[in-house]
């Protein structure tokens, strides 16, 4: 197997989820497509990340990078970025777009768990955005991220809480009423409560630094960061350094 190829037998992956995103991969950078919400929330994601880490010169791993929207924005902010995903077509789109924009990013078709055995502690920052709710074992991804980040480094997650409000807004509202996402994009049973994500993180000796919500106003059609973490939320975790000191 070539370096950078997917180890399909060991991957923590739902084939139906990969197929779903692969089918629409060519539209990843089309801001009028089903990926429009990702383009619209990306400035907020970057704002949250920048608030907790210094992107300039940072070695960053973007887990579940898809077509590279976040990866490119972090590279343009001065970071050295590696993006990993299990979708071959999405990575092809990411590589082509990086060539068009002249941004240097390393893209690998590889599972986080596999990369963690090769590059333990290699990154200053790990980002894993809108991905945990699409894998069979999200706790395994959290563990891999904890192994991949250096002591003193930080991990940024974003996902969706499993709550009645999230079911109404993220599935009924976003997929069936407003049409922001294709129907079937999310499975409510795969949503992750903040308490669950924090418990998995603490199990890996990660310190919870910050939790923040992201809301959508259908009247203004705008997203914003908020203290409400009952639907979409972002989390910053930190791996203590060997001396127990926390960065920042």
Automatic annotation (TrEMBL):
Pathway info: Cofactor biosynthesis; ubiquinone biosynthesis
Keyword S-adenosyl-L-methionine: yes
Gene Ontology biological process terms, A to Z: methylation
Residues that bind S-adenosyl-L-methionine: 45, 64, 85, 129
GO MF annotations in UniProt: 2-polyprenyl-6-hydroxyphenol methylase activity; 3-demethylubiquinol 3-O-methyltransferase activity; polyprenyldihydroxybenzoate methyltransferase activity
Catalytic activity: a 3-(all-trans-polyprenyl)benzene-1,2-diol + S-adenosyl-L-methionine = a 2-methoxy-6-(all-trans-polyprenyl)phenol + S-adenosyl-L-homocysteine + H(+); a 3-demethylubiquinol + S-adenosyl-L-methionine = a ubiquinol + S-adenosyl-L-homocysteine + H(+)
Ranges in a coiled coil: none
EC code(s) of this entry: 2.1.1.222, 2.1.1.64
InterPro entries xref list: SAM-dependent_MTases_sf, UbiG_MeTrfase
Keyword Transferase: yes
Keyword annotations: Methyltransferase, S-adenosyl-L-methionine, Transferase, Ubiquinone biosynthesis
Classification via Pfam families: Methyltransf_23
Organism domain of life: Bacteria
Membership in a protein family: Belongs to the methyltransferase superfamily. UbiG/COQ3 family.
PANTHER family, alphabetized: METHYLTRANSFERASE (PTHR43464), UBIQUINONE BIOSYNTHESIS O-METHYLTRANSFERASE, MITOCHONDRIAL (PTHR43464:SF19)
Role: O-methyltransferase that catalyzes the 2 O-methylation steps in the ubiquinone biosynthetic pathway.
Name by which UniProt lists this protein: Ubiquinone biosynthesis O-methyltransferase
Native organism: Natronocella acetinitrilica
């Amino acid at each position: 197997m070539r370096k950078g190829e997917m180890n399909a037998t060991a991957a923590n992956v739902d084939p139906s989820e990969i197929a779903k995103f692969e089918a629409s991969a060519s539209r990843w950078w089309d801001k009028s497509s089903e990926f429009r919400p990702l383009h619209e929330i990306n400035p907020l994601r970057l704002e949250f990340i920048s608030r907790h880490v210094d992107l300039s010169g940072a070695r960053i791993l973007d887990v579940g990078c898809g077509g590279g929207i976040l990866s490119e924005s972090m590279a343009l902010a001065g970071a050295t970025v590696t993006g990993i995903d299990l979708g071959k077509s999405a990575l092809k789109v990411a590589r082509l777009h990086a060539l068009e924009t002249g941004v240097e990013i390393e893209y690998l078709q590889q599972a986080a768990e596999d990369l963690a055995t090769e590059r333990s502690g290699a990154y200053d920052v790990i980002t894993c955005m809108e991905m945990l709710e699409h894998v069979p074992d999200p706790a395994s991804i959290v563990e891999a991220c904890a192994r991949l980040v250096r002591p003193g480094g930080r991990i940024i997650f974003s996902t969706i809480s499993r709550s009645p409000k999230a079911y109404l807004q993220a599935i009924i509202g976003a997929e069936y009423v407003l049409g922001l996402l294709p129907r079937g994009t999310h499975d409510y049973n795969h949503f992750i409560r903040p308490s669950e994500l924090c418990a998995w993180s603490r199990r890996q000796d990660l310190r919870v630094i910050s939790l923040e919500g992201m809301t959508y106003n259908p009247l203004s059609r705008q997203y914003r960061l908020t203290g409400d973490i009952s639907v979409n939320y972002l989390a910053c975790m930190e791996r203590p350094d060997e001396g127990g000191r926390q960065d920042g």
